[in-house]
């Protein structure tokens, strides 16, 4: 075997073990007994120790030094990813990596309990541990850069807080102006009623299949916070159910299906290699957001969904497909990011971005986080947070240490705006297809243009290659203004 062959064989084994670790995380959020939390933390720490040892194995450096890409772009991409991973992991002590895995595993369970009890004080001690550990990790990685940039690089290579903040500053005025105009117009009626959990889940499974999710390589379960887990031949999704709000279940499912289809549709030759997963969380979010919003919340698709909901639940409080479309896209003040309308969603992200940068940078103490959240929310949204589960405890991300992850949601929206603009140009009869519940052409376009290459290209190059132009926020903002000004007759 050549040095390259030995390196890839070793890397495949490492990636297989990482998939096992991911499966433990899925189990913890879905079916693990509550009393197992401490033991699961020890298990995650032990497995992280094994993974860290493999990722920093001295032989990896030797193989990298001896390996050649031979002019092959796939080999070059493999070596680029492995080099980056090895360089980052060797900067982090094994003891720190294991302790992070243990504490975040435990913290996730503490967060779930605190959220259910609306007890922020019960969560803050373990959150303080998570923040401190991630600050230590960032200090190992940052070099001459900032702690936050070091963490953000885990999720969106080539991004930075300064570039992201500048983009947010360009976006905010148009988003706020659009929101103010929409909120000043009459609000369409909401969908009301009680919707059985069994019916919601049946419709969720239908939607997952309609959007291309392969149930022979996946499953749909319930969790406190919807998520997607895995890659290749085992990609699992979760959703949640609220009796008075079927959109929560249905659109969470479509969102997670976007993530899952990305992983399921990557070139199978890349399985269990660094190329066999989404290239960044921003690109990942572009898939979940375009599935959920530009396709799933479109007027055309709403017409098909109206018929499916009637078949599942009987008569609806909204009288026709146009009324359902308006209900699906209602813009109202609300607390929850995952339930936010498209107009305000990115404002939720901008708030979290600022708060977590302050936490990581040491400018905001964990003890002051809830107050800072509530003050900022009132300033940004004009609403007073009524309880922690509607405020600082609503998201799972900080409990598991995902600092630097939140801005990738808006970056994903920006990418989705660019992809949607090009998709519409390439598929002029898209609305006719969506009206029939036919997603094959749209999801096939995304599969071929974005998903199949996996990690072969950089995030920005992946989107630029699909769109034919460098990504920017303009197409997203234009789409939002056109959609909501028409819907609200502004």
UniProtKB/TrEMBL annotation:
Broad specificity carboxypetidase that releases amino acids sequentially from the C-terminus, including neutral, aromatic, polar and basic residues. Belongs to the peptidase M32 family. The active site is at 256 (proton donor/acceptor). GO terms for molecular function: metal ion binding; metallocarboxypeptidase activity. Pfam families: Peptidase_M32. Binds 1 zinc ion per subunit. It comes from the Bacteria. GO terms for biological process: proteolysis. Its EC number is 3.4.17.19. Keywords: Carboxypeptidase, Hydrolase, Metal-binding, Metalloprotease, Protease, Zinc. This is Metal-dependent carboxypeptidase. Its cofactor is Zn(2+). InterPro entries: Peptidase_M32_Taq. Zn(2+) binds at residues 255, 259, 285.
């Amino acid at each position: 075997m050549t040095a390259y062959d030995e390196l890839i064989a070793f890397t495949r084994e490492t990636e297989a073990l990482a998939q096992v670790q991911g499966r433990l995380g899925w189990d913890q959020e879905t079916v693990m007994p509550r009393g197992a939390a401490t033991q699961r933390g020890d298990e995650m720490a032990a497995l992280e120790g094994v993974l860290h040892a493999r990722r920093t194995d001295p032989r990896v450096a030797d193989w990298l030094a001896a390996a050649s890409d031979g002019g092959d772009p796939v080999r070059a991409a493999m070596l680029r990813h492995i080099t980056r991973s090895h360089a980052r992991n060797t900067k982090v002590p094994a003891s720190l990596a294991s302790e992070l895995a243990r504490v975040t595993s435990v913290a996730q369970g503490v967060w779930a309990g605190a959220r259910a009890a609306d007890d922020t004080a019960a969560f803050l001690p373990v959150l303080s541990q998570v923040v401190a550990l991630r600050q230590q990790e960032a200090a190992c990685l940052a070099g001459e850069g900032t702690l936050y940039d070091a963490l953000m690089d885990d999720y969106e290579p080539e991004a930075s807080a300064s570039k992201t903040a500048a983009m947010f500053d360009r976006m905010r005025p148009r988003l706020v102006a659009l929101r103010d105009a929409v909120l000043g117009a009459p609000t369409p009626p909401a969908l009301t009623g009680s919707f059985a959990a069994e019916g919601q889940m049946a419709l969720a499974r239908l939607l997952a299949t309609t959007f291309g999710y392969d149930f022979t390589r996946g499953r749909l379960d319930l969790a406190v916070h919807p998520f997607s887990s895995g890659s290749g031949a085992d990609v699992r999704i979760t959703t949640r159910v609220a009796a008075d709000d079927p959109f929560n279940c249905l659109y969470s499912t479509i969102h997670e299906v976007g993530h899952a289809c990305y992983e399921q549709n990557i070139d199978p030759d890349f399985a269990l290699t660094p190329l066999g997963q989404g290239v960044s969380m921003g690109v990942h979010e572009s898939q979940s957001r375009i599935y959920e919003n530009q396709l799933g919340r479109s007027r055309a698709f709403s017409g098909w969904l109206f018929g499916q909901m009637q078949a599942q639940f009987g008569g609806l409080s909204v009288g026709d497909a146009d009324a359902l479309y308006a209900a699906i896209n209602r813009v109202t003040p609300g607390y929850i990011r995952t339930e936010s309308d498209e107009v305000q969603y990115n404002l939720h992200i901008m708030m979290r971005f600022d708060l977590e940068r302050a936490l990581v940078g040491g400018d905001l103490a964990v003890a002051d986080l809830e107050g800072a959240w509530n003050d900022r929310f009132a300033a940004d949204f004009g609403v007073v947070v009524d309880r922690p589960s509607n405020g600082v405890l609503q998201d799972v991300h900080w409990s598991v240490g995902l600092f630097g992850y939140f801005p990738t949601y808006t970056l994903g929206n920006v990418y989705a705006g660019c992809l949607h603009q090009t998709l519409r140009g390439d598929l002029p009869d898209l609305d006719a297809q969506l009206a029939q519940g036919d997603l094959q052409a749209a999801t096939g376009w995304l599969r071929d243009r974005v998903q199949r290459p996996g990690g072969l290209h950089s995030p920005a190059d992946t989107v630029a290659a699909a769109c034919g132009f460098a990504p920017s926020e303009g197409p997203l903002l234009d789409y939002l203004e056109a959609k909501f000004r028409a819907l609200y007759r502004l």
